[in-house]
Design brief:
This is CRISPR-associated helicase Cas3. 43% of the residues lie in helices and 10% in strands. With 815 residues, it is of the alpha/beta class. The chain folds into four domains: 14-190; 226-453, Rossmann fold; 469-668, 3-Layer(aba) Sandwich (Rossmann fold); 699-812, no CATH class. Helix 17 (422-436) links the parallel strand 5 (408-412) and strand 6. The protein is globular and about 90 Å long. The model is unreliable at 1-8 and 352-358 (pLDDT under 50).
């Protein structure tokens, strides 16, 4: 029971305190109402046995905003920063510190105390040395509170709750004792019976989600209803039938028939298997994306409650393509989320044509919150965003976890992940399934095994790779003997394009791709296209559109010989079809993915020719080691793909399984999985911010105000980009950069417009090595984004690729 109270205070009456500025319509935002709403929502999100603790945390999370100095700063609209999170954390811990609690509840109190102290910043570790509230502790803060009003508020909400002292001074005087209690609790807390199950930050996710939803005036939504899923499924099946008829008419009937048989096997396996982790390994071009969509919709249609479909892909271009496929095939609204994505305008019609299924949004910034929190029936996002949700460095990132509860999660092309994070990802997915009731479908042509991962049950395998006689021989891969120079690659690629049709050449680095492209483009009888990461997004999208136009009907027979010279950007997410393909030796999984772009739909009478070659630069160096740095992966690739041998598609997939076993036998992953156990003991920094891909060292973004060649300077601008330029009334491309560092402009934007502007910036931005930027830009080390000085340095055919220096190892890392 909360005790009575006496005494005066130097604060603003609690009932008059505000949580944030009044709304645009003049509606006030009382602090008491906000705390109560967050407490109730956090309790609703909590699992059994945790509701009371989450409710208290919600009621206390912004208690520090009742400080007089915080309220004065809010009213003035500016002023020195006033810490507030530490007060709620301190009061929360003080409430329960004197109560005898079971170990599981003591653990929850410790973690929630950390969450309260960090709910606007980084998620700290829970350790005996690091007391959560000490970072913002201000002894004078207690004198600024209307403690009597606060106690009355809490007493009304928790009439049977733990007792609070009569005065804030009395509570503040306990700080030294509470530090000792904190350390004692941490030191004596026993390990949970199953440490892995306690490693993910669910308490932070639920608390932050409740806070952000109420502050943004967004009503959360549970996902797609069974009725909506049934309607989408019906439309998808009609779309699939029409697609199969089209492929048959284009000469891919045999492939369509075999694809259909494989897909039916997968459907039967899906209906009979008992997950929650499913594996779908099928050849490239077998229709996995649409099949996974069908499986997910079928499951939701048969559910008894709404569920969310979340589709994860490695790269932005694949996310964008999949989102459009879902809209076209199902008519459903899709939330597309990546760092360049923009929130949907609630006033606009649904892009897919289906009735709008959106959460209630009451504020201009609500649409941004809807996107960041994945509050939509169908979400298509990147691995980067998913890692930030599951393994957040900052508390605000964790709110996305609540969207994963009971979700169907499709993970496409997971083999693209950096090798060290593969096992942690699978372990995290299994924990997600166990803790949130989610179902996970991993799919690729090249799925690695799960070494050292502790699963509650074996994954359900929906389809084994088909035997050779059951799958068309779409390509034949030959490992060439001897070293190939730039001249050799160019000569062989041009000959193949003239003899066989559209040809792709995939190199390991930007510098290599540009060098080979320039050698091929010197032949006037051949169309050549360059594609790599030293082009900004608008330029890359334009190049891909050009290739699709040149390929015409998709059979791989353009009007003129065509060679596309690329980096690994074509290996996942670019649905192009070539009659011949050359791949610089990489690692085996990468080369199998690349080969899947050859005779993709089995339309050719003979298998496509895929050649793997050892590329050697003019100085005799092998650039493979700069991209594929794991020596074990390279050595096992060379062992299982020796020069002078050839394999069919299915033989290569079988060989890939042996390759993976060898790799993981030599590179145990158990040490990395220990991170989950350490996180369960409080060391969240072991997992916080883990990235899905190898990080690019010594790179910074450069703004490139170029949108086309000199004779057509706006050729690459698409409608959305032009719309953003018009929206911000920007007179020239150069002026976009000026606005970025115009404090009056950027500081005056609300969160949604700020995201819109940064989206516009991103369309003209390239990540480049710092050494190169010091040559090409004004080079202001105080600025995160540099500006290209001479736009003539940006080529309409190779972007900034010619400036990537071969001696700089950074040139090998970005796609």
């Amino acid at each position: 029971m909360v005790t009575g109270h006496t005494g005066s205070h130097g604060g603003i009456p609690f009932r008059l305190c505000r949580a944030r500025p009044d709304g645009a319509d003049g509606r006030p935002a009382p602090l008491a109402a906000h705390l109560a709403a967050v407490g109730q929502e956090a309790e609703a999100l909590a699992p059994s046995g945790q509701g009371t603790f989450l409710r208290w945390a919600g009621y206390l999370h912004d208690l520090g905003k009742a400080r007089a100095s915080w309220q004065r700063r809010l009213k003035a609209g500016s002023g020195p920063r006033v810490p507030h999170a530490f007060l709620g954390a301190y009061v929360f811990f003080a409430l329960f510190a004197g109560i005898s609690l079971p170990a599981a509840q003591r653990r929850l109190v410790l973690w929630l105390t950390r969450d309260l102290a960090c709910h606007h910043g980084r998620l700290d570790d829970v350790t005996e040395e690091q007391v959560p509230w000490e970072g913002g502790w201000e002894a004078s803060a207690w004198k600024e509170l209307d403690w009597a009003g606060i106690v009355t508020f809490l007493q009304q909400a928790f009439p049977d709750g733990p007792a609070l002292p009569d005065s804030a001074a009395t509570l503040a005087a306990r700080e030294t004792a509470l530090r000792r209690t904190w350390r004692n609790w941490v030191m004596t807390l026993p390990s949970p019976p199953d440490p892995l199950r306690e490693s993910l930050p669910w308490s932070a996710a639920r608390l932050v989600a409740a806070d952000r939803f109420h502050a943004g005036e967004v009503s959360p939504m549970p996902g797609m209803t069974p009725e909506q899923a049934a309607g989408a499924l019906s439309r998808l099946r009609r779309y699939l039938a029409e697609r199969a008829a089209t492929m048959t008419a284009q000469g891919a009937g045999a492939m369509a028939e075999r694809r259909s048989r494989l897909q039916e096997t997968v459907r039967e396996g899906w209906r009979q298997a008992d997950g929650p982790l499913y594996l779908l390994q099928a050849p490239t071009g077998s229709g996995k994306t649409l099949l996974a969509l069908e499986l997910a919709l079928e499951r939701i249609a048969r559910s008894s409650e709404p569920r969310r479909l979340i589709y994860l892909a490695p790269f932005i271009n694949l996310v964008t393509d999949v989102a459009q496929v879902v809209r076209d095939a199902t008519g459903q609204e899709v939330l597309e989320h990546h760092h360049l994505a923009l929130p949907d305008d609630p006033s606009e019609p649904v892009k897919g044509g289906a009735p709008a299924v959106r959460p209630r949004v009451e504020t201009p910034d609500g649409a941004l919150l809807v996107m960041d929190a994945w509050q939509a029936p169908v979400v298509v996002s990147t691995f980067n965003q998913f890692f930030r949700a599951l393994l957040p460095a900052r508390a605000q990132q964790a709110m996305r976890m609540v969207a994963l509860e009971k979700a169907l999660v499709v993970v496409d092309e997971p083999q693209t992940l950096a090798a060290p994070v593969w096992a942690p990802l699978v372990q995290g997915l299994e924990l997600l399934a166990a803790q949130a009731g989610a179902e996970i479908l991993l799919m690729s042509a090249t799925l690695p095994p799960f070494p050292g991962v502790r699963l509650s049950r074996p994954p359900a395998v929906l389809a084994e790779p088909p035997p050779p006689e059951a799958w068309p021989a779409r390509y034949r891969l030959t490992a060439q003997e001897g070293a190939w120079s730039v001249e050799t690659v160019a000569r062989e690629a041009v000959a193949a394009a003239r003899r066989e049709g559209a040809t792709a050449v995939i190199l390991n680095t930007v510098a290599d791709a540009v060098t080979v492209y320039e050698a091929i483009s010197a032949d006037p009888g051949v169309q050549a296209v360059n594609l790599h990461g030293a082009m900004h997004p608008l330029h890359k999208a334009h190049q891909i559109r050009r290739v699709r136009e040149m390929l015409g009907d998709g059979t791989g027979q353009p009007e003129r010989p065509l060679v596309v010279v690329s980096t690994q950007v074509m290996e996942a997410g670019v649905d192009l079809n070539f009659r011949s393909l050359f791949r610089a030796r990489a690692v085996l999984s990468s080369m199998v993915q690349a080969a899947g772009r050859a005779n993709r739909h089995g339309q050719a009478g003979n298998p496509a020719d895929v050649r793997v070659f050892d590329f050697v630069r003019e100085d005799g160096s092998d650039s493979r080691v700069w991209v594929y740095r794991n020596r074990v992966y390279r050595e096992e690739t060379d062992r299982w793909l020796p020069p002078g041998n050839a394999w069919t598609e299915i033989e290569l997939v079988t060989r890939l399984a042996s390759y993976y076993r060898s790799v993981f036998d030599r590179s145990p992953q158990t040490a990395l999985l220990d991170r989950f156990r350490k996180a369960a003991s409080g060391q969240w920094s072991e997992l916080a911010g883990l990235e899905p891909f190898e990080q690019v060292p010594y790179h910074r973004p450069v703004f490139v105000p170029v949108a086309g060649p000199e004779q057509d300077p706006l050729q690459w601008l698409d409608e959305p980009t032009q719309g953003l330029i018009d929206y911000f009334a920007i007179p020239s491309l150069e002026a976009i950069y000026d606005r970025l560092y115009d404090r009056g402009f950027l500081g005056g934007l609300g969160p949604v417009d700020r995201r819109r502007f940064l989206n516009l910036m991103g369309k003209f931005t390239v990540s480049m090595p710092v050494k190169t930027l010091q040559i090409l830009t004004e080079w202001n080390p105080e600025r995160e984004v540099q500006r290209l000085v001479d736009v003539r340095a940006y080529s309409p055919t190779t972007g900034l690729g010619r400036w990537v220096r071969k001696e700089d190892q950074g040139e090998a890392i970005f796609l």
